[in-house]
Design brief:
The structure is a homodimer. Chain A is an alpha/beta fold and about 350 residues long. Chain A has three domains: about 45 residues, Orthogonal Bundle (434 Repressor (Amino-terminal Domain)); about 130 residues, 3-Layer(aba) Sandwich (Rossmann fold), CATH 3.40.50.2300; about 140 residues, Rossmann fold (3-Layer(aba) Sandwich), CATH 3.40.50.2300. In chain A, the strands form three sheets. Chain A has a six-stranded parallel sheet, sandwiched between helices. A four-stranded parallel sheet of chain A has the order 7-6-8-9, with helices on both faces. A two-stranded antiparallel ribbon of chain A has the order 10-12. The two termini of chain A are about 45 Å apart. At the A-B interface, helix 4, helix 5, strand 2, helix 6 and helix 7 of A face helix 4, helix 5, strand 2, helix 6 and helix 7 of B. Chain A binds a DNA duplex (30 and 30 nucleotides) through helix 2 and helix 4.
DNA sequence: GAGGTCATTGTGAGCGCTAACAATTCATGG
DNA sequence: CCATGAATTGTTAGCGCTCACAATGACCTC
């Protein structure tokens, strides 16, 4: 019941035209919503299309128009919340503009894998590519690669030579760190993300700036790899500093914050009474951590829309609306991990 | 430095042929790895290709061969761990077979959205589609829809009229429930997933069977919507049954289990000493819940490979290797939430 | 009623590639 | 030295569509 194998070859526009008693060009006009087609003719054609189950051939159309209306996306770690959300938002935004999205997911972003991915997408006829490339190495690779289509980077930071769209990570870190200072903490410690990630560097920079502006010497900084496990290990180390000046930690993402929370708990350290913890990302689970996590939310939907808009500008040869580097404001979400008040789940906006 | 706008039109095969002093067909042969090309000629052609930065035109090739080598994927909730992992695995498997993947992510799977997605993918020239369609309504919609290409469903359960690939949810539920019974619990309660999800139904069925085979009357069953919040609410209700026969809960996914854990904790109920909790999915965070969560792991990589293999069989007109419904075994991962022993994070396999 | 305009439809030429077949070259053996 | 067949290369005809332009006819104006 699912397929229609009435003929071996699917019907062509000419077949439809013959059936409707018009020329193939008229069929094309109907399909293309051209104004100058008599209603009666249009109806005839539509009826024939319906009856034959005709569908326009993508390849022929693309060949004739020289447009595939397909965008490529290169991503890695697509099972992480951030990249997955970005991917989703990108596809949605692209579809809204009438474009298809062809994805290549990489296990790791190196010059080689990135280059292969771009080659592959090029063979796939994409008109442009979005690279979700948060590692610095990836940005450099991107800048050095030749490709016959425009590329927009997401999450690479704004300093790049490649047009990019970013959430303002530095601002997010300032919000979180500032919030902890405002809550009365003298110093704020920091568990940073991987050195190679631009977003990690930006978050660290925002944290450091905020402390320095407040006249506080930034304490020792730990480093993790985004994983809960690395957060757990860092948390064990942090637990050793409780009572020696540690009262607040800004963790570079929620997953590591989860590990930190667990390590602190196991060490008998209470959150937030003994140590306040703030994260970054606002993953859906963050609200249900023990305790619910204060964190920084990024608007991926906007990231997706802006990225697609920028890429399409580049494809159409338009001057991008604004600069070629877009920054999006993140938002602080305060929950119990930094505050003794425990809100009801579901009450917080998220 | 990134683009090569040396000529307005990108070079064609004929341009390369002219430069190499051969016919365009010879260029095509070189690109197609045809055996009967003299090494010397091949070298000439490759040099010309390199020099001109030539890339074969996707649309022209697809038109001539009548093959786009593109598969479609329809998915919803792609930011959830399961669907995101499946998506990733599908793309990887498709790429390994030389296919492109064009994704359409839906916010909700209804007959209408599904139908639109299939239409759209059809316009995009896909040769086949994978539908990550865990809702029953989606399966029905799929069965009733006409489409000019084969469709393979993932996560729909094996009973469907549509060829499908599934993790054996029932078996997973039996593993978890059996584990709890074996640990000495007299009864196992159950927080089920949304009624409309086949996977939820299968997990519930596995739970119920296991209890019945053990001669135990299944206790009241709660229902959530996969979210931590719904788990939290159910957890509050469950907390009221502690001391009245409730000692173990099998929760239909990890995120709800997270909510349950929090609710129990807030109610002063200890896990696993007072109530053991098992989840389903083994999301990366599960190991770092408080306490680390016993759960059921699904091998998405295998799901991806088998789905693609099945779809390609259908596309090529081959009889699918085996039946048209593939089941994949899940795996129980035991952690502290069902056992008084607390393993070190990182020690558990995952 | 001639001339003009507009709406509507048709015709022909590609888009850049591959498949099928034709033509050429080359090595080999009788 | 030429026939024989294999290896190598070239030629031609589409694949199914859109674009540019031509053709037709209806309608209007003076």
């Amino acid at each position: 019941m699912t397929q229609v194998p009435s003929q071996l070859r699917p019907p062509t526009m000419a077949d439809v035209a013959r059936m409707a008693g018009v020329s193939h060009q008229t069929v094309s006009r109907v399909l293309g919503d051209h104004p100058n087609v008599r209603d009666e003719t249009r109806a005839k054609v539509l009826r024939a299309i319906e009856e034959m189950g005709y569908r326009r051939n993508f390849s022929a159309r693309a060949l004739a128009t020289r447009r595939t209306r397909t965008l490529g996306v290169v991503a890695s770690n697509t099972t992480l919340y951030g990249p997955a959300s970005t991917l989703f938002a990108l596809e949605e935004a692209a579809r809204a503009e009438g474009y298809f999205v062809s994805t290549v997911s990489l296990r790791e972003l190196t010059v080689r894998t990135l280059s292969e991915a771009l080659d592959r997408l090029s063979e796939g006829g994409v008109e442009g590519v979005i690279a979700i490339a948060p590692q610095r190495s990836a940005v450099e690779a991107l800048a050095g690669l030749r490709h016959p289509f425009p590329v927009v980077a997401v999450g690479t930071g704004s300093g790049a030579e490649v047009p990019s769209v970013n959430v303002d990570q530095r601002l997010g870190a300032r919000l979180a760190t500032g919030h902890l200072l405002a809550a009365g903490h003298r110093r704020v410690w920091h568990l940073a993300g991987p050195e190679d990630w631009q977003e990690a560097a930006d978050r660290t920079a925002g944290w450091r700036e905020t402390l320095e502006e407040a006249g506080v010497e930034p304490p020792m900084q730990l480093r993790g790899d985004w994983s809960p496990l690395s957060g757990y290990r860092a948390g064990q180390e942090l637990a050793g500093w409780v009572g020696r000046g540690l009262t607040a930690v800004f963790v570079a993402n929620d997953q590591m914050a989860l590990g930190v929370l667990r390590a602190l708990r196991e060490a008998g350290v209470r959150t937030p009474q003994d140590v306040a913890v703030a994260g970054f990302d606002d993953i859906p689970e963050a609200e249900f951590f023990a305790p619910p996590l204060t964190t920084v939310r990024q608007d991926f939907s906007t990231v997706g829309k802006r990225s697609i808009a920028l890429l399409l500008d580049l494809i159409e040869g338009r001057t991008p609306s604004g600069t070629s580097s877009v920054a999006i404001e993140p938002q602080l979400v305060v929950r119990a991990s930094t505050f003794p008040y425990i809100p009801q789940p579901g009450a917080a906006p998220g």
